[in-house]
Amino acid sequence: MLKIKSEDGAVLVLSIIIILVLTVLVTALVGSINSNISFTKRHENDIKAYYAAEAGIEQGINVLLIDRENIDNYISDNSNDTDDEDYIKDYKNDSFNDFESFELRVKEGSGDDEYDFKSIGSSGSDVTKIIYTTININSEMGAGMFNNALTTEGDLNIDLSDWSGDDETKITGDIYASQLGVDDKFSFAKGELLGDIYANEIGVFENSGMEMNGNIYADQISKHHGQKFAVSGGKINNIYANEIGTFEMSDSDFITGGVHTFSIDANQSFIEPKSLENEVDSFGKIIPDFSEYFENDGNVYLGNENNPDYDGSVIELEGNKEYNNFNKDGSGIIVVNGDLDIKNNIKANKDNDEDFLIILVDGDISTSMHIEGNVFMYASGKINIDNTPGGSSQGQGNPGKFEVNGSFMAEEGITINDSRNQGLNLTHNDKFVEIFEDIGYGIPQLGSNNSGSSGSSSTSIEIVKWQED
């Protein structure tokens, strides 16, 4: 008889085998989970380190936009404290918490107005990311504030309503004015305006023949009693305004683009206002601070009242006096503490495209329409240019022409009045900014009380290179 042996031991062996297999699987699974957690954590730290490095670059850009001199001084004062890539160490350091931080290093770039940044971001104990970038900062427009033919934080009034001569009347460049035609009017009978107009408020605007290829941007247009925006000739491209009051136009063809507004009080049947998608920004302070030029007593040369000595440096003229003629060639800066009254003419570099004369007046400027050459004028008060018989700056004899390459800037207002049909030709040219840099005390900047938006940006930047390691 065949006997079958007991199988009790086989169950034990099978159980052990199953346990071993499960142990191996669990160990592998735990290892895989730990590996995934480690990878995820590493990836997360990589991302945090990258963002920390990027924050360092943004910090450098912000300093360039707000206070470029800070970086220039740091480079100058720490030029010997560099690492192996010639970056000046420890320009900026910042810690977000115990795990994330950046170290920002800087050096001069290879090109003009270029800066090289190296930002080392860290997260955790051994995770770092490095970003190299080259930033070009654009200040050739004199911080953007000199990029206009006419600029005032007061009222701009131009009266060429009686102009009927054959001489050219032309303004090439933008116009910035807190108010335009509020105290008097902004009136053209003919001519060209090749640029845009920016104003918080427009009062009396009359165009009976001016060809304007740019746009008008304003918060309010002719909203008050006695004010009117009237177009009876010429051309205007587009008008953008948050509010429009009294608006008269004899022919819809005078507006080649359209009238864009949120609201218009007085409308004509052929005017079909277009919806204004975005509010027109108002601006606050757009004129830089020239006080250093009036306060600094160094490098000043005095001459007599009609023929001041001029050596291409900074000259100071006595203010609150009347000058007959003002004829100077060469690049330089004239500083006047007090009002400047020139009865006859101003001529500066009339036949020379390279040189520029800068006239800075801590007071009012009054002169006739006879201004020729390359000139930048600034007044802390008002600029009054008047060829009207009996006007405050009426010259003697032939008043001559107004033919200027440059710019006019006044804190409290600008008035241009020509009833003698001599013509006006103003072409914006910001080459004078180089004179501030070359022989002056640097480019004047906006003060800390700047609250504007349109046209008030002090600098612009361009990212020339971006490399991540």
TrEMBL record:
Transmembrane segments: 12-33
Taxon lineage: Bacteria, Bacillati, Bacillota, Clostridia, Halanaerobiales
Keyword list, A-Z: Membrane, Transmembrane, Transmembrane helix
Descriptive protein name: Type 4 fimbrial biogenesis protein PilX N-terminal domain-containing protein
Region of interest called Disordered, as start-end residue ranges on this chain: 447-469
Record field: compositional bias (Low complexity): 447-460
Superkingdom field: Bacteria
Keyword Membrane set for record: yes
Species for this entry: Halanaerobium hydrogeniformans (Halanaerobium sp. (strain sapolanicus))
